[in-house]
Amino acid sequence: MKLNHVRVYRSEETLNRADQLAFKIAEVAADPVAVTDEVTEMVINRMIDNASVATASLTRKPVVAARSQALAHPASTGGHGANVFGEGQNTRVSPEWAAWANGVAVRELDYHDTFLAAEYSHPGDNIPPILAVAQHVGSTGHDLVRGIATGYEIQVDLVKSICLHEHKIDHVAHLGPSAAAGIGTMLGLSPEVIFQAIGQALHTTTATRQSRKGEISSWKAHAPAFAGKMAVEAIDRAMRGETSPTPIYEGEDGVIAWMLDGPKAAYEVPLPERGEAKRAILDTYTKEHSAEYQAQALIDLARKLHREHPEIGQGENVASVVIHTSHHTHYVIGSGANDPQKYDPNASRETLDHSIPYIFTVALQDGAWHHVDSYTPERAKRADTVALWNKTTTREDANWTKRYHSIDPAEKAFGGRVEITLTNGTVIVDELAVADAHPLGAKPFSREQYIGKFRTLADGVLEKTEIERFLELVQRLPLLTAADIGGLTVTAKPGLLAAIATPKGLF
């Protein structure tokens, strides 16, 4: 990897195009380097993972709305169109709208892969727009794998080096450029075209973090889908010769100067050298539980405490629960956010899955976590849960913050230490650094676990024959022909989607 120095340039200073971050990213995307077998296998895992969580969300309101919008935009004339999760394989829509609908389906349950460093990310959000374009133009499985490997690489490299949330910018600002780069790789576009698409994608997807603050709305699932949709449109415009604001990162009135660290800012952004394989997907990790990633290890710890100390599930036995954890966990999903909504039994599901006091309480009482049952209004309003929930707080611990930011995989951690004080004075202390499903966890996810997750979430949503068809096809991903790519979708059981009321809008 090469570190690329990035700073703000005044308009009168010279910054050659080849020295701009967007162009360097474009050069990485255009590099014809082969994808390793290890990366290819992980791409397949994440295709299965995305299909799992998208399938489980097909009947949820935001997904129904996004799908209905996509279905109002039939396949455009420049290609075959792209598939929409839930619909039959013969149903094709314009690729940017497929990216939109499928992106919402993938993100809705907050249940797919993650990478956390200077910034947050769900790199699997790259897959819907890249796959939609692949289906539209008739790419092969080999080229699709290459595009996805690039999408992951660029997003992870940006997330490692450029913090957005400190400036209240939503993390999807890294997704627009990474998805555009991934599409560029898959299509074999020139660095110049990819460069222009990256600039447009960044310019149109830089938004505030209010979508993840306070009362969190359904837009949380739509934000990454919007970034993917913008990436598809940016590629289309760039292929037609249209240009972007330049330099988009380093300009005097650019993203860094006015939205991030300001005119004096400087970053060191790692990117692969020419000829160096794109391996960043191997640094990412998926979720066993449907909740914000920083809750994963704490859910596992709560399950353990439930088994070992069943008495603490009863709120009247507990005086206080204090979770000592990282800065990010405390201030984003903990009591440090100072969001009263995180303690509100009437809060939205999107808010509850970003409330570690709620999540830890329910997991502690139930000894389990479920993507539907753990979030029902009835579960959130249970009197003993509310009582224990309100006794649960978080505190930032410098050591856990240090481990969160560590670049040493053996030290890096996303969990915390829990101190539970009982009313009789007994103090129970335990900690967990990484989730069980993490590559360094107690039960790391492998192909078997990804397939198991898909089977579990598809049960009752897809026919058994459809489950097996998809799994057989996706595991042959690098060998798929253009004709096969349309099969990389899932079709709901007959009548399931037809029974759901479709919202009406403009289209």
UniProtKB/TrEMBL annotation:
Domain MmgE/PrpD C-terminal stretches: 289-477
- Which molecular-function annotation in GO is an example for this chain? 2-methylcitrate dehydratase activity
Would the keyword Transferase be found if you checked this record's keyword annotation? no
Catalyzed reactions: (2S,3S)-2-methylcitrate = 2-methyl-cis-aconitate + H2O
The cross-references to SUPFAM superfamilies, in alphabetical order and at most eight, read: 2-methylcitrate dehydratase PrpD
Instruction: Enumerate the InterPro entries for this protein.
Output: MmgE/PrpD_sf, MmgE/PrpD_sf_1, MmgE/PrpD_sf_2, MmgE_PrpD, MmgE_PrpD_C, MmgE_PrpD_N
* KW Lyase (keyword) present: yes
Domain of life from the UniProt record = Bacteria
Quote the EC number.
Answer: 4.2.1.79
Chain ranges of the MmgE/PrpD N-terminal domain: 20-266
Sorted keywords for this record are: Lyase
**Subunit structure, per the record?**
Monomer.
Similarity remark: Belongs to the PrpD family.
What is this protein identified as?
A: 2-methylcitrate dehydratase
User: What species is given as this protein's source?
Assistant: Alpinimonas psychrophila
* Taxonomic lineage of the native organism: Bacteria, Bacillati, Actinomycetota, Actinomycetes, Micrococcales
